[in-house]
Write a structure and sequence with these properties.
α2 packs antiparallel against α3 and α3 packs across α6. The radius of gyration is 24 Å and the shape is globular. With 336 residues, it is an alpha+beta fold. The longest helix has 35 residues.
């Protein structure tokens, strides 16, 4: 059966296995920093499947892609490729959908400079509160579709595992999960793109995602995808020449008065508005936190005493300034 597939896909799988074992042993000996890496294991037939082909194993046409040992496969392209791809990864998700992810060189795309800067306070009741006073509601995609998901999963549990009816119902559950994921990603993409286009500098609070998903509100935090939102903001700011700053997670943004700077102590989550005991200013809890995050990120002042512009703190180089690693010539772009 090894001759039924392309040798390139087999070689890439062996290389991936070697990297997995290398990371696992490096984690055991302490050479690899971060969380402990588990040993590689076999993929499940019901979960995500993929294989990768390099140059010589595929060719891209207008409405199709030619894969080695498979021939021409029709493909719906979401946007044209900016350059010739160096590799393609064919992915089948749990719901049975197929995707082709190409690795290409992305051209520079810096946005026009803007004088606007914003601080963002993220949460569960209000997804994002801007220092300008704008509030973005939390769509709660999982909560809205939870009754349907419960019915599907209850029906799945009543079927014999491995039967035809079980596989059919498993796909229905997987398709609903994929729909929830797509809705969440679409919302986060649109919101992050709008914020990057409108502001030259963005300041957000550093989140401990691993700690948040261990709390009783783990389902709500996972449904919101706050970590994905911050990651998208950082990546898009880096790509388009914007400044991205993270404020320390222990900074008391909800306790400090944005008018006078007095720290008024901790407040329960049910208190959404409060009045400063020092200056008497009345604050909305989320808007006040967003303003303090903007100030803590160094975005509150735009000019110094001589009238010259004040540049925000050090950040990653924009795409036009970043050098290309000799062994990583391309950046991946997914076509969906």
């Amino acid at each position: 059966w090894l001759s039924e597939v392309s040798s390139i896909a087999i070689n890439e799988s062996v290389l991936d296995l070697g990297v997995a074992f290398k990371n696992f042993f490096a984690s055991l000996t302490g050479k690899r920093k971060g969380a402990r890496v588990n040993p590689p294991r076999f993929k499940s037939r019901c979960h995500r499947q993929s294989f990768r082909l390099t140059r010589g194993g595929f060719s891209v046409h207008s409405q199709s892609i030619k894969l080695a040992k498979l021939g021409h496969v029709r493909m719906k392209v979401s946007r044209p490729l900016p350059s010739a791809p160096s590799s393609v990864t064919v992915i089948k998700d749990a719901s049975g959908r197929y995707f082709a992810s190409f690795v290409v060189d992305v051209p520079e795309s810096s946005l026009p400079e803007s004088d606007a800067a914003v601080g963002i306070d993220v949460g569960l009741e209000t997804y994002a509160t801007l220092s300008t006073g704008e509030k973005v509601d939390n769509p709660r995609w999982l909560r809205k579709l939870l009754p349907r998901l419960r019915r599907y999963q209850k029906s799945l549990s009543r079927k014999q595992k491995g039967s035809s009816n079980w596989h059919h119902q498993r796909k229905k559950v997987a398709k609903l999960h994929a729909h929830i994921k797509d809705c969440r990603s679409d919302f986060i993409h649109k919101l992050s793109t709008r914020l990057v286009r409108e502001n030259q500098a963005i300041s957000v609070e550093d989140l401990c995602v691993k700690g948040l998903v261990r709390t009783p509100l783990a389902k709500s935090f996972s449904d919101a995808g706050l970590g994905q939102f911050v990651t998208m903001l950082e990546a898009k700011c880096h790509r388009h020449g914007r400044h991205f700053l993270k404020v320390d997670r222990f900074y008391p943004s909800s306790q400090v008065c944005s008018a006078c700077g007095h720290q008024d102590g901790k407040k329960p989550l049910n208190i959404r508005r409060w009045q400063c005991s020092e200056c008497g200013a009345s604050h909305d809890r989320d808007v006040n936190a967003a303003v303090n995050i903007k100030v803590a990120g160094g975005l509150s002042e735009t000019e110094n005493g001589c009238g010259e512009s004040v540049r925000p703190g050090a950040t990653r180089a924009v795409l036009s300034e970043a050098a290309t690693h000799p062994n990583r010539e391309c950046q991946p772009v997914s076509l969906r």
